[in-house]
Amino acid sequence: MSSDAPYRAATPRSYLMCPPEYFEVSYAINPWMRPDSPVDADLAMRQWSALRATHESLGHTVATIKPVPGLPDMVFAANGATVVDGIVLGVRFRYPERAAEAAAYLSWFRSHGYPAVHEARHVNEGEGDILVAGDTLLAGYGFRSDVEAADELAEAFGRRVISLRLADPRFYHLDTALCVLDATTAMYYPPAFDDAGRAALASVFDELIEAKDEDAEVLGLNAVSDGRHVVLARQATGLARALAGRGFEPVPVDMSELLKAGGGAKCCTLELREKTTP
Ligand code: ARG
Questions:
Q1: Residue 224 and residue 218 in contact, taking contact as beta carbons nearer than 8 Å
Q2: Where are the domains of the chain?
């Protein structure tokens, strides 16, 4: 870390994860998925367990949801909901292959004492496309979520929503192209956005780290930050260096099997944001 990098403080988080018990790549709904190439299910489970252990070792709480047979992508819990101030907005998937996950996640929230659980009217794939930066919500659209979901977000959470059009099909969810590190800092892949999106990001964040092609292409931006530790693909060495240089602590994990479905560390992690007392 360079001596002029600011001190970055971690805050404890609560996450929801889903073990990849039924994980496989049996259909293709994003350019990463190749149904004809084999997936090592045991290795996927070991990588997922290591990710969970990593979150816990950083002091975070991890709850789990029971996986459902026939829903191989359910491991990507980030797509299960958006939770802000203890309020839950459910999801509605673009493709029928994942549609049944929406109800499974809703019923988890309903049975875990969340008082406000809203069903989605428009297509929105949860935290895959919806990120929180301080008081602002960032809503990606173009490949998966509908732009109209932004109004629903503003209604459910009472916060400002900035819509960002995604421009590169490889980065089909916002969380593959942008990672919020803290309220004023993010890392992102500029070519995944249009001019308006890049300008919006520059207005929201004081500090933006730009990912190079080689780091974006291993889904290095699909990372989980607690304000200090940034859990990211171990292959994303350039981003790890950039983070360390700015006072963050990169925590590398290997998600190679889950990457075959187009997912990384963040996709497997849904943040449960409770109401914070001001
Ligand atoms: N195969 C899954 C899909 O295409 C991957 C989801 C990745 N999740 C994410 N939050 N980016 O829907």
A1: no
A2: 14-271
Annotation says 267 is catalytic: yes
51-109 pLDDT tens trace: 999 999 999 999 999 999 999 999 999 999 999 999 999 999 999 999 999 999 999 99
Q: Is the pLDDT of residue 278 over 60?
A: no
Query: Residues with beta carbon inside 6 Å of ligand 1?
Result: 29-30, 33, 73, 76, 78-79, 98, 128, 173, 175-176, 261-263, 267
How far, in Å, CA of 203 to CA of 56, rounded? Answer: 34
pTM score of the predicted model:
0.97
Placement of tokens 């916060």 in the chain = 159
What's the gap in Å between 255 CA and the centre of ligand 1? 13
Q: Nearest 5°: phi and psi at 140?
A: -85, 145
Contact status, residue 42 vs residue 230, Cβ threshold 8 Å: no
CATH H-level superfamily of 14-271 = L-arginine/glycine Amidinotransferase; Chain A (3.75.10.10)
CA–centroid distance, 85 to ligand 1, in Å, is 24
Strands 14-17 and 270-271 come out as: antiparallel
